[in-house]
Write a structure and sequence with these properties.
The structure holds 2 protein chains of 2 kinds.
Chain A (H helix, E strand, L loop, with lengths): L3 H26 L14 H10 L5 E3 L5 H6 L4 H8 L32 H16 L6 E6 L6 H12 L4 E7 L2 E2 L2 E2 H4 L16 E5 L3 H16 L5 E6 L20 H8 L3 H11 L5 H24 L20
Parallel strand pairs in A: 1-2, 2-3, 3-7, 6-7
Antiparallel strand pairs in A: 4-5
Helix pairs in contact in A: 1-2, 1-10, 1-11, 2-8, 4-11, 5-6
Chain B lengths: L1 E4 H15 L3 E5 L15 H5 L4 E3 L4 H13 L3 E6 L9 H8 L2 H4 L8 E7 L14 H5 L5 E3 L4 H13 L4 E6 L6 E4 L12 E4 L4 E5 L2 H15 L4 E5 L2 E3 L3 H11 L2 E8 L4 H13 L8 E5 L8 H7 L3 H11 L4
Parallel strand pairs in B: 2-3, 2-4, 4-5, 5-7, 6-7, 10-11, 10-13, 13-14
Antiparallel strand pairs in B: 1-8, 6-12, 9-11
Classes of the chains: A alpha/beta, B alpha/beta.
C-alpha cells in the first residue's frame, strides 16, 4: 500500500509529465522540435508509479514514447527540453533527441527508436545485477503492446525467465500500435496471457489507477529483488494523442471520438486528484500550489533550452567511439 | 614461445582476460560444457563457474541485445555467435543499438561488448553457414572489426578487444581453428589499427585478410621462385584500418592486389582500393586488382565452392597481371 507521501509524489510526477508533454507539443508545432515525437499524455500513472517504487540504483529501459519514463526516473526537465531542441546542454548533447533520451546518472538506460529495442537491453542489465554484481537492484523494462509481437520479446522473456533475472517487464497497452488496433494484431485479449509461455507471473491491471498499479508493481519489484525472477505486467491504458505529434488520423480516423472521450474520462491525474482530496491527503490549495510550481519549472526548462548553445561543429564526429584509457 | 592452435590461442586469451577482470562474462550457444562447436571456450566453465560463462538458448537477438544491456551497466560482455550468418537475426541489436548508443547519448554510454563470430567458407557448409560479413559492419560507424589470421594475432587482438570499451566484432575463420603458430608465453596485446607485414617484398603489395593471408603467403613463395618479390600485408583490424602501412608499401612497390574471401561488390577491397587511389595514385604503375569470392551465394558442391574461394593460382594470376607479366 502506498503511503500518503508516495501518493503525493506520484501525483506531482504525473502532472510534471503532463505539463512537460503539453509544452513539448507546443514547441513541436512551432517547429522548434523536429522529427518524430511521441507524446505520453494519458499514460502518466504507469511511469510515475514505477518511478516512485524504484531506487536510484535501479535501472529502466524506455521506449520511443519515453519522456514520462525519463521524468519518472528522476530526469531533469530542463536537460530534457534542451535535448528536444537539439542543444548541447541536453541529456545527449543534442545528438539523441526525443527517441533517445537517456540519463545514466539516474539509471535510465535510454529511450529507443526501435519497437522492442529495450527488451534485450533490460535482460543484460539483469545479468549485471544478478550474476555479475550480485546486488538486489532491479530493472523495469517499459514497452508497448506492439513490442510483444516482435521476436525479441520472446527471446528476452525466455532468457530472463530461465535465468530468473530481476527484470519487470512492464507493458503499457495503449490499444494501438501506430494505426492498428490490438484486436487486429494479437490473437489474445490480454498481453499478460503471454507470460504462460515463460512460466512467469502475468498480471493485467488498470494502467490509469495509481493505487492498483502501486500494489502490482510493488510485489513484482519485491519478487525480482528477492531473486524470484521476472514478472510480466500489462497496464491497460490509452494515449490521448496520436502515435506521433501531427498524427492526423488519431482523432476520428482509426480511433473514434467516443472512444477517446471515454478514456479521457478515466484521466489518471484527475482520478488521483479526486482521491487525494477525498481522502484528505491534501487540500485543493496544496494541489494548486504544486501545479503552479511545476508550470514555473517547465517555463524555466524552456527558457534554459532556448538560451542553450547548439552543439559545436566538432561534435559531429565526437562519441562515435570511446577514446580514452584504451590499451 | 609455444606453438599452439588458433582455437587454443582464443581460449587462452579468454581465460587470461577473465582472470584479470572479474567483470568479463561469456555467453553464447553451447559455450559451457562443450566449449562451443570449435572448442574455443573449453575449460572456462571448470575454472570460472556458472556465474562467468553461460549457455544461452538459440536466441541471437537477446544474446547481443543483452550484451549491450550488460555492457551499459558495467559488465564486459563477451558473446559468441556460433556462425556469423546467425548474427543476421540480431542486426537491430548490433547496428541500431550497440553501434549507436554511445553516439546517441552524447558519449554518456559505454559499450564494452565483444561479439566473437566464426565465419568463412571452405568446409562445404553452403550459403547460410559460410559467409564473410565483415563489410556490413565496417560500413556502420561505432563498430570495430577484427580479423586475425594467425594464433599470435588471434590471442593478442582478442585480449585487446576484451579491454576495449567499444563494441568489437571479432571474426574467427573456421578453417583457421586448427592452424598452428608461435605464441609468447608472457602476457601481450596487439593494438588495433596496426597492420602486420607478414612478408616483406619490393615488387608488389598484396593486402589480404584472415584465411586469405595464408593463401597470399603461399602464392608469394611460388612467385619468389619466378623472380617476383611480393609484400604481404595483413591489416588485422579493418576498423580501425592502418592506412599508413598499406600506403607506404604501395609507394614502395607501385602495385597492389587485394585479396578477401567476402564478395567483391562493396567489399573491404573497394574501400582499400579507393584509399590507395586517394593517397598513392601517383605511385601506381598499374590498376589495382581484387581477388574475391564470386558475386553469388557460397555454393554447397565442393567443386563449386573451390571455384568461388580465392585460390593461390588466382592470387598469382592477379599479381602477374598488375606486373604485366604474361
Amino acid at each position: 500500500m502506498a503511503d500518503n507521501n508516495s501518493l503525493l509524489r506520484i501525483y506531482e510526477q504525473m502532472l510534471r509529465i503532463r505539463l512537460f508533454e503539453q509544452k513539448a507539443q507546443e514547441l513541436y508545432v512551432q517547429g522548434l522540435v523536429t522529427g518524430s515525437m511521441h507524446i505520453y499524455t494519458g499514460q502518466e500513472a504507469i511511469a510515475a508509479t514505477a518511478g516512485e517504487l524504484l531506487r536510484e540504483t535501479d535501472t529502466i529501459t524506455s521506449t520511443h514514447r519515453g519522456h514520462g519514463h525519463c521524468i519518472a526516473k528522476g530526469g531533469k526537465t530542463d536537460k530534457m527540453m534542451a535535448e528536444l531542441l537539439g542543444r548541447k546542454t541536453g541529456y545527449c548533447g543534442g545528438k539523441g533527441g526525443s527517441m533517445h533520451m537517456a540519463d545514466f546518472t539516474r539509471g535510465n538506460l535510454g529511450a529507443n527508436g526501435m519497437v522492442g529495442g529495450g527488451l534485450a537491453i533490460s535482460v543484460g542489465a539483469g545479468i549485471t545485477n544478478a550474476i555479475i554484481k550480485k546486488n538486489d537492484s532491479v530493472t523495469v523494462c517499459f514497452f508497448g503492446e506492439g513490442a510483444t509481437n516482435e521476436g525479441v520479446f520472446h527471446e528476452s522473456l525466455n532468457l530472463a525467465a530461465i535465468w530468473k533475472l530481476p527484470v519487470i517487464f512492464l507493458c503499457e497497452n495503449n490499444l494501438y500500435q501506430v494505426f492498428t488496433s490490438v484486436a487486429e494484431s494479437m490473437p489474445v485479449k490480454d498481453v499478460s496471457i503471454r507470460a504462460i509461455s515463460y512460466g512467469i507471473p502475468g498480471i493485467t491491471c488498470d494502467g490509469n489507477d495509481v493505487l492498483e498499479l502501486y500494489d502490482v508493481l510493488d510485489s513484482a519489484i519485491e519478487r525480482a529483488r528477492n531473486g524470484q525472477g521476472p514478472t510480466l505486467i500489462e497496464a491497460k491504458t490509452y494515449r490521448w494523442e496520436g502515435h506521433y505529434t501531427g498524427d492526423g488520423y488519431a482523432r476520428g480516423g482509426y480511433r473514434s471520438i467516443e472512444e477517446i472521450d471515454l478514456w479521457k474520462a478515466k484521466d489518471p491525474i484527475a482520478r488521483m486528484a479526486k482521491y487525494i482530496i477525498e481522502s484528505a491527503i491534501a487540500d485543493n490549495e496544496l494541489l494548486e500550489k504544486i501545479e503552479a510550481g511545476l508550470k514555473d519549472e517547465i517555463e524555466k526548462a524552456v527558457h534554459f533550452a532556448m538560451e542553450s548553445p547548439w552543439p559545436d561543429d566538432e561534435d559531429l564526429y565526437k562519441d562515435v567511439f570511446y577514446e580514452k584509457e584504451e590499451v | 614461445m609455444t606453438v599452439i592452435k588458433y582455437s587454443q590461442a582464443i581460449r587462452d586469451a579468454i581465460a587470461e582476460e577473465m582472470r584479470i577482470d572479474q567483470n568479463v562474462f561469456v555467453m553464447g550457444q553451447d559455450v559451457e560444457t562443450m566449449g562451443g562447436v570449435f572448442g574455443c571456450t573449453k575449460g572456462i566453465l571448470e575454472e570460472f563457474g556458472h556465474d562467468r560463462i553461460r549457455n544461452t538458448p538459440i536466441s541471437e537477438a537477446v544474446i547481443i541485445g543483452a550484451g549491450v544491456g550488460g555492457a551499459l551497466t558495467g559488465t564486459r560482455m563477451l558473446v559468441e555467435m556460433q556462425y556469423v550468418d546467425f548474427i543476421l537475426h540480431a542486426m537491430d541489436q548490433t547496428i541500431n543499438q550497440a553501434a549507436k548508443v554511445r553516439y546517441m547519448t552524447g558519449g554518456k554510454a559505454t559499450v564494452p561488448l565483444i561479439i566473437r563470430a566464426q565465419q568463412g567458407s571452405g568446409r562445404g557448409n553452403g550459403a547460410q553457414h559460410s559467409q564473410n560479413l565483415e563489410a556490413l559492419f565496417c560500413h556502420m560507424p561505432g563498430l570495430k572489426v577484427v580479423m586475425p589470421s594467425t594464433p599470435y594475432d588471434a590471442k593478442g587482438l582478442l585480449k585487446t578487444a576484451v579491454r576495449d570499451n567499444n563494441p568489437v566484432l571479432f571474426f574467427e575463420h573456421k578453417v583457421l581453428y586448427n592452424t598452428k603458430g608461435e605464441v609468447p608465453d608472457t602476457d601481450y596485446t596487439i593494438p588495433f589499427g596496426k597492420a602486420d607485414i607478414k612478408r616483406s617484398g619490393k615488387d608488389v603489395t598484396v593486402i589480404a585478410t584472415s584465411w586469405m593471408v595464408l593463401k597470399a603467403l603461399e602464392a608469394a613463395e611460388i612467385l619468389e621462385k619466378q623472380g617476383i618479390d611480393a609484400e604481404i600485408i595483413d591489416p588485422r583490424t579493418l576498423v580501425p584500418l592502418d592506412k599508413e602501412t598499406i600506403i607506404n608499401s604501395v609507394k614502395k612497390t607501385g602495385r597492389a592486389v587485394i585479396v578477401h574471401e567476402a564478395h567483391e561488390v562493396c567489399g573491404i577491397g573497394a574501400e582499400i582500393a579507393f584509399i590507395i587511389m586517394e593517397l598513392a595514385i601517383d605511385w601506381l604503375d598499374a590498376p589495382i586488382k581484387r581477388v574475391t569470392s564470386a558475386q553469388a551465394p557460397i555454393p554447397y558442391s565442393s567443386k563449386l565452392e573451390k571455384l568461388t574461394i580465392p585460390s593461390v593460382d588466382r592470387i598469382i594470376d592477379a599479381v602477374k597481371e598488375v606486373m604485366y607479366i604474361k
